[in-house]
Amino acid sequence: LYQDIFSMSMQDFARVLENTLSPDHATRHRASQWLSDAAQASLGDYVAALAGILAAEECMVAVRTAAGLAAKNALVNRRADRGRQDALNARWLAVAEGQRAAVKENALRALASPSGQAGTAAAQLVAAIACIEVPAGRWPELLPALVARVTGPSA
């Protein structure tokens, strides 16, 4: 059964993600179903929680990577169905600006992760968000933020 994301700790949510990697089919299926239900119930809360885990260096790399990929998958239609992608785009753009900004900040922060796997998942999430927001004129600070990360003192 779906449990409200707000009532879960980050550790509990990370445990659900960890269960999606379980070798046990039943455990993996329950965790995947919970994630699907959570995404349907509240896309903004779901992606925000995933982006928070992705950016959390204290979490296991496999869990962070799973979080980034799950967030990206919540925003991208893998079947190349334009109508479905348009619906996903509209759903994401309907998420409160503050929540979208927090997701974007966590995704950008995770790009600099010492873990290559988490960084790659973050890059995929940034790309998924950019494909929705840039054409809509909603993320003008993306390119300057990326340039700053590449040319800044920690680059």
Structural overview:
By secondary structure, the protein is mainly α. The protein contains eight helices and no strands. The protein has helices spanning 10-19, 25-41, 43-55, 61-75, 82-93, 97-111, 116-133, 142-151. Helix 3 packs parallel to helix 6 (97-111). The longest helix has 18 residues, at 116-133. The radius of gyration is 15 Å and the shape is globular.
Say how many strands there are. 0
Enumerate the spans where pLDDT stays under 50 for 5 or more consecutive residues. Answer: none
For the largest beta-sheet, the strand count, sense and barrel status come to: none
The termini sit apart by 44 Å
- Mean residue pLDDT: 90
Q: What share of the residues does DSSP label as strand, in percent? A: under 5%
Tertiary shape:
globular
SS-based class: mainly alpha
* Cα Rg: 15 Å
Please trace the helix and strand order, writing H or E for each element: HHHHHHHH
